[in-house]
Write a structure and sequence with these properties.
The structure is a single chain. This protein is of the alpha/beta class. The protein is built from 13 helices and 12 strands. It is elongated, with a radius of gyration of 30 Å. Helices cover 33% and strands 16% of the residues.
């Protein structure tokens, strides 16, 4: 496959050589509360994330009566009798609320988009002008949905949890056949939260090599360490759930980061990018003073009278680095001192005949 290695979401390029695209994943941490959703937007703005993302779904369309509650769902269920369908319905925001929410986010100066879980939700998101679509791991084999979204010819970011490399290949093919090449893949372990040994960041390179696409990481660990590690390994995109209170009742709060951690994450990503710098081994300007102070030069071991032929025994290697380079030792030996040289002084070219 030879899809585009880079593409744009809004004004931002994604791919090799471009800054990491940081998605602050609000998800359902608004708990169905519209005002809380707006405050999550405010938090993403204050942390300087590149985008804030929500989830657009209908409980009735997403889950059947036979749908099961995963362990992480159960911690957010209001009773043992609550079904997954009922739980999801509690967490829905209406289209009207989302329309207002997206307008609010744009007014605050942050990119906003969402994960649709059905075709009607995708159509709604297109109608409100989202710049991209996120595809959840859960939808990777929902080929009709993938094709429906891909045909809108907008960028797509697809998580790959729960699926094999062959299934990912098939999903990419479904998207590619619509003519949409604006696709990025995220390594993801679809559980909330996960332990570090279940992360497998090296899969990012497998995805990059196999599909020649921008890649990244959707992080469900606690804390920010693993997200930062993904950036250091070359993630073009990172996605992280965030919340106001990790102890809040709900399905995702304990797998999310705090406001302070979100701020630290964004700053950490930018620091890592700055630190990665260039692959060319250079002497940066900031080292120039230290170079003069700490690199060694040829120094007189003893007093050297004028007219004396210099021998190796008269020389020693010491700081600073402003004299003759130690590699030029043989050039110095055998030359005659033009002037007297005091012991423990730099040997300078002008001192020699």
């Amino acid at each position: 496959m030879n899809l585009n290695r880079e593409f744009k979401i809004g004004s931002r390029f994604l791919g090799s050589g471009h800054p990491c695209f940081i998605i602050a994943e609000a998800g359902v941490n608004h708990d169905g509360d519209f005002e809380k959703a707006k405050k999550l937007v405010d938090l993403a703005v204050s942390a300087r994330a590149d985008a804030v993302k929500f989830q657009t779904f209908s409980g009735d369309k997403l889950a059947s009566k036979d749908a099961l509650l995963a362990t992480y769902h159960k911690k957010g269920a209001i009773s043992e009798k609550e079904t997954l369908k009922d739980l999801l319905k509690r967490l829905e925001l209406s289209f009207d609320q989302q329309r207002e929410l997206f307008t609010y986010a744009r007014q605050q100066g942050i990119m906003v988009f969402s994960t649709p879980f059905d075709e009607e939700s995708a159509d709604f998101l297109e109608s409100v002008g989202v710049p991209a679509f996120k595809i959840a791991s859960f939808s990777l084999t929902n080929y009709p949905l993938l094709a429906h979204i891909a045909e809108k010819k907008k960028p797509m970011i697809m998580s790959t949890g729960l699926h094999t490399i062959g299934e990912i290949e098939e999903a990419v093919r479904v998207i590619q056949e619509t003519g949409n090449t604006q696709l990025a893949l995220l390594q993801c372990t679809a559980h909330y939260p996960i332990k570090v040994h279940d992360v497998h960041l090296k899969v990012m390179e497998t995805l990059r090599s196999a599909f020649q696409l921008p890649v990244g990481y959707s992080d469900h660990t606690t804390g920010i360490t693993i997200t930062l590690a993904a950036v250091a390994l070359g993630a073009n995109i990172v996605e992280k759930h965030f919340t106001f209170d990790q102890a809040s009742f709900g399905v995702d709060h304990d797998a999310s980061i705090s406001p302070a951690e979100l701020h630290a994450l964004v700053q950490g990503v930018r620091d890592i990018e700055a630190a990665l710098g260039t692959s060319v081994k250079i002497i940066p300007e900031i080292e120039k003073e230290i170079q003069r102070v700490h690199r060694p030069s040829l120094v007189s071991r003893t007093d050297i009278p004028a007219g004396v032929v210099i021998t190796a025994e008269m020389l020693v290697i010491k700081k600073p680095g402003t004299g003759i380079h130690p590699k030029d030792w043989r050039w110095v030996v055998g030359r005659r001192a033009k002037t007297a040289i005091e012991a423990d002084r730099l040997i300078l070219p002008g001192y020699l005949e």
